[in-house]
Specification:
- Helix content is 46%, strand content 19%.
- With 155 residues, the chain is of the alpha+beta class.
- Strand 1 and strand 2 (57-65) form a beta hairpin.
- Helix 4 crosses helix 6 (133-153).
- Residues 6-24 have low confidence and may be disordered.
Length: 155
């Protein structure tokens, strides 16, 4: 009954709205398709990727061109049992890292989409202590900025 009373907007089709949403890089979402999940891709990233540390987060990234699909940034986040024994603590740190990534990834996504580049990034937490979100976000922003500058200057 409520649906029938709602006015229908004939100016925009569902397809046009979908394309508009997909092309909007200012949206701060981290979808499941943005996560690096396949074992072969993860092994390739750690074997061939460039590595760096900022404080207690180690990041590894690899860049490759793609002709078939639009540019893509895929993320892998890890908090090893070696550093944080309890699963609750590991999950907390992974959530904090994913949230910081979600809030600060849009600029890199936009550059990759414009130049048909795929970037795979792994973030590994390497501290025995649980860290505050603000500190985690500061490190993630620094690492994403370094990745952006290295990827963008080599285009």
């Amino acid at each position: 009954k409520i649906i029938a009373e709602m006015p229908v907007d004939t100016d925009t089709s569902p397809v046009a709205v979908n394309e508009e949403i997909c092309n909007d890089f200012s949206r701060q979402t981290l979808k499941r398709s943005s996560m690096l999940k396949h074992k072969d891709d993860i092994e390739n990233l750690f074997r061939k990727g460039r590595k760096a540390n900022i404080d207690y987060i180690r990041y590894t990234y690899i860049k490759h061109r793609t002709e078939s699909a639009q540019g893509l940034v895929r993320i892998f986040v890890s908090a090893p049992k070696k550093y944080l024994r309890h699963a609750v603590d590991r999950n907390l740190m992974k959530r904090r890292m994913r949230e910081a990534i979600r809030k600060n990834l849009s600029q890199l996504r936009k550059a990759c989409a414009e130049n048909n580049i795929c970037v795979d990034i792994a973030f590994v937490f390497q501290s025995n202590n649980i860290q505050d979100y603000s500190d985690v976000e500061r490190i993630i922003v620094l690492s994403l900025t370094k990745i952006y500058s290295e990827v963008y200057e080599k285009i």
